[in-house]
Design brief:
two-stranded antiparallel ribbon, globular, alpha/beta, Spore Coat Polysaccharide Biosynthesis Protein SpsA, Chain A
Length: 306
């Protein structure tokens, strides 16, 4: 018997390759009886649904399906900031566009999966909540911005990793409210919208499900007070890595080497693309401390010979 897990991604033509690596990592860690029913939301002008790019995954995996669904012109012209386009707002429409499921995952594509998702999907009870997500530590500025919309950091979640109670959202007619609130110029766009509309009905999930900056300096700091030792171990061993800041396919950033190792192991691997990135980063690499270089090499050899 297969465990069917519905999961949604939303992105534009600029993120096709990262989406491929993200989905490849998801399928790579799927258990034998897990089947991912994947939906990809896009605007009417997107080119990638017309290509065979994602068909390459079928050369390696048979535990998934992919369905493309257009959102038309929804949210075109909405507020954009920090290179986050209006495609980020598409997750607000998931209950309407994907009516097949009452409970469904949503993930950004700047993510690397290190685990199967069945256990959390099966165990999380969203009956009294609209969404579930991870609240994470932030800077003083981030906390100030969150406080300005009337929320506390502990109750405010990242919108990049979600479990959505589509049934309750539709029953309570929240989609029009999502659209109305999303029309404002919020600093964190769709993320602020979800938190404002769902306030009081948000389930806080364990940090391994997608803590912002997973396996970050916060986690590696022995004096940090945000997570227990067991939570830190879980994050490091099979936590979902969310590159919510700098992108590893563009520059050297925290844990960029993990992304590139998953790229190297993926069906989309291209030697020239791989080489050009590292060639372009030679100068930044030369400025790294000796210890950081050693850590990168150790991680490389550990994954290479597993």
């Amino acid at each position: 018997m297969r465990n069917i897990l519905p999961i949604v991604f939303c992105f534009d033509d600029n993120l096709v390759l990262p989406a491929g690596i993200c989905i490849n990592s998801l399928l790579l860690h799927a258990k034998q009886d897990t089947f991912y029913d994947i939906f990809i939301l896009h605007d009417k002008d997107a080119e990638y649904p017309k290509t065979s790019f994602f068909n390459k995954l079928k050369e390696q995996f048979n535990n998934f399906s992919i369905t493309f669904r257009s959102v038309g012109d929804e949210f075109r012209g909405n507020y954009e900031i920090r290179e986050i386009t209006y495609a980020a707002y598409y997750r607000l429409l998931i209950p309407d566009i994907i009516p097949e499921y009452d409970k469904i995952f949503y993930f950004d594509v700047d993510i690397i999966f290190q685990c199967d998702l069945y256990d959390i999907y099966n165990s999380v009870d969203l009956s009294n909540y609209y969404i579930g997500g991870v609240s994470t530590p932030t800077s003083d500025i981030g906390e100030y911005i969150i406080n300005k919309i009337g929320m506390n950091v502990e109750d405010y979640i990242c919108s990049g990793t979600l479990i959505i109670n589509s049934k309750k959202i539709k029953e309570d007619n929240k989609i029009p409210e999502f659209k109305d609130v999303a029309s404002k110029r919020w600093k964190y766009q769709d993320q602020d919208t979800l938190n404002i509309v769902c306030r009081g009905n948000i389930l806080i999930l364990p940090p391994w499900f997608g803590v912002v900056g997973t396996i970050s300096k916060i986690v590696s700091d022995k004096n940090q007070k945000f997570y227990t030792n067991n939570e830190v171990l879980k994050i490091k061993s099979d936590g979902i890595i969310h590159y919510n800041g700098p992108k590893p396919w563009k520059e050297m950033c925290l844990n960029f080497d993990i992304w590139w190792e998953y790229y190297r192991k993926s069906i989309f691997f291209d030697y020239q693309y791989y080489y050009k990135f590292y060639e372009s980063q030679l100068n930044p690499f030369d400025r790294l401390t000796l210890w950081k270089r050693v850590k990168i090499l150790l991680r490389y050899f550990k994954t290479k010979f597993q």
